[in-house]
Specification:
Oligomer: single chain
Number of domains: 1
Helix content: 25-40%
Radius of gyration: 17 Å
CATH topology: UDP-N-acetylmuramoyl-L-alanine:D-glutamate ligase
CATH class: Alpha Beta
Number of strands: 9
Largest sheet: 6 strands, mixed
Strand content: 15-25%
CATH superfamily: Ribokinase
Shape: globular
């Protein structure tokens, strides 16, 4: 399936490419990463790279760097509501991406708000940080499943997150995807970064359609923010007019390119450089 070009430095304006949406707005609803490699900070870098306007609703403040998360504090319900109302009245979203939600109060608030929003939602079900810190109150998981998932266009769990959500080890990705689809999401992308294979194989399914996306496994310690980058890239591609199957392919290509461009900072799980996406047609397909 051909993938349209994306806006990069020197390219013609977006309106001459596939999308006829001018300056699409993408919301990221997630936590702030003081180290700059994940969360809101990574999301906005990706959205800027794709040429969409990123807006943020911050759910939590974290004190973290490349070596770990040292403290986390949820944003108050009043401030969460104020952020939502400020954006809704002036900068309504084309697509919404969610990441770290943190508290029961935040998840319940978003469940209520999503009732009135009819836009694609990319949900990265952030349960733990790369360093292993818990980023979602266990009591919020039931609300996430029952009240958020039915509004989700694509769910993007990694293997440990998918196994936690379905309650058992994954023996077959297609069966695991079916279990996640049964929770109400429209489609699911199970990310294979935590597997032991020589290739990084992700599995996408919408029930009637499915596909594998593969790329060579890149041996690097610079993996901080990979889930945020991938889900934000999907959201940005959707906002620019791509269909879901195209968007996940574009995001996979973009994520692989990011892994090849580490930002040489920090002593732990370092971040990546986030640059404007390549012209996908000039690169080999991931499929």
């Amino acid at each position: 399936m051909p993938i349209p070009l994306f806006k990069a430095i020197g390219d013609p304006p977006i309106e001459t490419q596939k999308s006829n949406i001018r300056n699409p707005v993408v919301w990221t609803i997630a936590g702030s990463d003081s180290g700059g490699g994940a969360g809101i900070q990574a999301d906005l870098k990706v959205m800027s790279a794709f040429g969409v306007h990123g807006c943020s609703i911050i759910t939590a403040l974290t004190a973290q760097n490349t070596q770990g998360v040292f403290s986390s504090e949820p944003v108050s319900p009043d401030m969460l509501r104020a952020q939502f109302q400020a954006l809704e009245t002036d900068l309504p979203p084309t697509v919404i991406k969610t990441g770290m939600l943190g508290s029961v109060e935040t998840v319940q608030f978003l469940a209520d708000m999503f009732q009135s929003l009819e836009v694609p939602i990319v949900c990265d079900p952030v349960l733990k940080s790369t360093s292993g810190a818990d980023l979602l109150d266990p009591a919020a998981v039931a609300i996430l499943k029952h009240d958020i998932f039915p509004h989700v266009t694509v769910l993007t769990p990694n293997i440990p997150e998918a196994e936690f959500l379905i309650g058992h080890k994954i023996e077959d990705e297609a069966e695991a995807a079916d279990e996640l689809l049964a929770m109400g999401v429209e489609s699911v992308l199970i990310k294979g970064g935590h597997s032991d294979s020589d290739e990084c194989c992700d599995f996408w399914s919408a029930g009637g359609e499915c596909m594998w996306l593969t790329a060579p496994r890149i041996q690097t310690r610079h993996t901080h923010g990979t889930g945020c980058i991938l889900s934000s890239a999907i959201a940005s591609a959707l906002a620019l007019g791509q269909e879901m199957m195209e968007a996940v392919q574009t995001a996979k290509t973009f994520m692989t390119d990011c892994l090849l461009q580490p930002a040489d900072v920090g002593r732990g799980h370092g971040p990546m450089m986030i640059k404007p996406p390549c012209k996908v047609s000039e690169n080999e397909s991931n499929l």
